[in-house]
Amino acid sequence: MYRFAARLRAAAAALTFGGLLAGTPVEALADPIRIAFGDIATVESLHLLIAFERAKEKGLELEVTYLKSEDIAAQAVVGGQADIGIGAPYALIQKVNAPIRMFLQLSQLRFYPVVNSEFYKDWKDLDGQEIAVHSRGSGTEAIMQLMADKHGITYSNISYVPGAEVRTGALLQGNIKATIVDSSGKRILEDKAPGKFVFLPLDDVSATDEALFANTAFLQKDPQGVETLIEAILTTWREVEADPKSVLVLREKYKLLPDATPEMVADIEPYFTEAAKLGLPVNGGGEEAARDDFEFYTVSGALTGKADELKVGDFWEFGPLDTVLAKIGTK
To answer: Do 102 and 207 meet the contact criterion of CB atoms below 8 Å apart?
Structure first.
């Protein structure tokens, strides 16, 4: 595993809320906004780190903490230890009626189920076997459960291994044999061990992978701060989609991922080139994306009930996004 990932996992284990992104805002708009990120900072989150820096340049004070799972991030938001979380907590909202709402789609599911070909060749081979996914209730778990149902198989156990990069490293080291990785992990596996891994076929899915979510009381308390953050993210997403190479320049400008290995740095441009080609949610998702989520997550089992009977307002609050889109326009 990469040294950088190991160092951040150690930091996450402490669960100490502090400002991990340096920088003093020019003029704070409100109290510091505490963001709980249920993952490690890697290449795939680089554009989000850039957006955080840009929000701070606009006067927003941010404190970002990296936690070891989306579950813990959501618990931090519900418990008041954090203001904003990153994930897709559909199950939590529905099952315990948690007073949190998602308000901005950050990414859609772009993942690749993969197995070590020395042990497995297809989905049927995974019947009664162990797999690894990102975290409980995550999109990666939903995809793997959905495919298990489709192929009539049952996993013996599901291990939770946060970070696609970590799961990629574990595959290469032989610590896990079946998991799901992102496009960056797919390229690394194909480059470092050609022919050793089989990428299993996956039906086309269109659903939220990660979103920003917050306690409803916080959304009412600091709408200006929320809108500043949304605008910083959407303008960054649009710039990256127009010019994926800009991520390299902005990483240097803000001195992000300083401990990144040469392999990680080399993957930045290909990763964002592919992300731009597939399309970033440059308009923040919106109600149409929420409806797509209902279709996916009810089939996968993360949500109960019929998709067409679920109410968007029970899971999402689009007021801040609508305000920002009225200002910067839609694409």
So the answer is: no
Q: How far is CA 63 from the centre of its chain?
A: 18
- CATH T-level topology, domain 112-199: D-Maltodextrin-Binding Protein; domain 2 (3.40.190)
CATH number of 3-109+207-328: 3.40.190.10
Which residue, 115, 87, 77, is CA-closest to 193? 115
Match 């889109």 to its residue by tokens: 325
Residues, the chain: 331
Residue numbers of the chain with a pLDDT score lower than 50: 1-29
Q: What pTM was estimated for this model as a whole? A: 0.77
Average pLDDT, the chain: 88
Q: What is the pLDDT of residue 164?
A: 87
Cα separation values, 220 from 51, 100, 214, 227, Å = 22, 12, 10, 11
Q: Where are the domains of the chain?
A: 3-109+207-328, 112-199
Alpha-carbon distance of 133 to 116, in angstroms, equals 15
Token readout for 313 is: 């307002």
For residue 219, give the nearest of 313, 135, 153 by alpha carbon. 313
pLDDT, tens only, 51-102 = 999 999 999 999 999 988 888 999 999 999 999 999 999 999 999 888 999 9
Cα separation, 294 vs 175, in Å, equals: 34
Say if residue 58 is exposed, middle or buried (CB neighbours under 10 Å; 0-12, 13-18, 19+).
Answer: middle
Distance, in Å, from the CA atom of 8 to the CA atom of 136, rounded to the nearest integer, reads 20
Question: Is the distance from CB of 52 to CB of 63 less than 8 angstroms?
Answer: no
In SS3 terms, 248-278 reads as HHHHHHHCCCCCCCHHHHHHHHHHHHHHHHH
92-96 contact pairs (CB < 8 A, 24+): 92/137, 93/314, 93/315, 94/303, 94/304, 94/314, 94/315
